[in-house]
Design goal:
The chain is 68% helix and 12% strand. It is mainly α. The strands form two sheets. The chain has a three-stranded antiparallel β-sheet with strand order 1-3-2.
Length: 187
Amino acid sequence: MDNIENEWLTVADVCASLDIPAETVRRYIRNHSIHLKAKKSHKKYLIHHDSLEVLRQIRELYAAGKSVDEIKDILTQKGVPATFTVETTNENDERVTVSVTDELQAIKTELEEQKRFNQLLLEQLHRQQKYIEQEMKRIDERLEERDRRLMESIRTLQKQKRERIEEAKKEENVKKRRGIFRFLFRG
């Protein structure tokens, strides 16, 4: 099995492994490609090693006298995954066969990674929000303390101002009294 390192087998490899004639394997691929991981590379088919068991089941179902449609239904009912292969071109305008199932699996993997990333991001945002709330609380406390001190200073200044005004009034009264006494005793 010369293609095993890539997990893809040639028709000859499958024939040797399952003891099925090459034309039969090709017919199975044409008739049941939806349930097989198979792709065409140039003029030959490559079959993923995961599809060997499905090919074995297809062989047994034909031996039991089942038709193509019955086999498709049976494989679907057994939960054999459907595989879709699409030919497209890459950036070099070369024709490339893409397995939709593989692509969906890759998308699913990337989606799971994105979910993990989003979860980490949310956790970080929550930590930042908590930090911001704590800092805002500290700032509020500092502002309240500053306001308290400021009000204390204002009250102290107002008290000192009242005291000075009272002293000034007393001095003025004293001066007025002295002035009256001077006026009275002068003459």
